[in-house]
Amino acid sequence: xxxxxxxxxxxxxxxxxxxxxxxxxxYDPAHLIVSEPDGEKRRFLAERYGICALAENEEAQRxxxxxxxxxxxxxxxxxxxxxxxxxxxxAPLTISIMAGIRERDLQHWLDDARPLVRAMPNTxxxxxxxxxxxxxxxxxxxxxxxxxxxxxxxxxxxxWVPEEGLLDVAxxxxxxxxxxxxxxxxxxxxxAVALGLDEENARLLSIQTALxxxxxxxxxxxxxxxxxxxxxxxxxxxxQALEVFQAGGFEPLVLQAVQAAHRRSQELSQLxxxxx
Length: 276
Known about the structure:
Helix content is 54%, strand content 13%. By secondary structure, the chain is α/β, with parallel strands linked by helices. It folds into two domains: 6-164, Rossmann fold, CATH 3.40.50; 177-266, ProC C-terminal domain-like fold (Orthogonal Bundle). Strand 5 (93-96), helix 5 (103-110) and strand 6 form a beta-alpha-beta unit. The radius of gyration is 21 Å and the shape is elongated.
């Protein structure tokens, strides 16, 4: 694994999860730095992971070869402008995991044409089971792409997209997607209770069924469509349930939901950007 020094700007849940995943994968804590204004959180991160925890973002950037922007999107402009004013030359590879902040705004605030990777992780990345979609600016070299991917694999699956706009699609599918599955599990649990099952069994059965289906989809060479057909016996219970879903417009409804999330992702990028 690389020995590049990484600076996490912001010590929130996602940064903490990536730091923990990297160390679990064998990354040397001596090459990990986090900057965090909250003194209590700073002490916690230093003690838990054995890493260097600083109060100043600019000092963390100065010591690092790779900078990971992990602050809330609402403070992105002020944080990035301060980092840009203190940027070393050459500028370090910068990875943004801030949702909705476009490359052009980041480059403008950072005041240089940095090698920049935008990453769209989802919440399961906090347990190293995420889906993380990446896009690289033209300044990013092949080696830097490999380095960014190596770092972010600490949070789960990584996939590249050729156009930055596709990150809005990834936001609608995988970024918001865990909530879609939670909604289905919630609905299954309520249906089971309504039919007489106790709450504990209803919950455990819905969760374990979702887990098992996801594992089958990951481990099987067949598509979800093929797997669905394999568990749907003609005239059986599954077929009856699926016919109700389809009669209710299940697939068009999913499309409408993802389209709505996609539109909102685009709107938020405009609201949070330089033009706002």
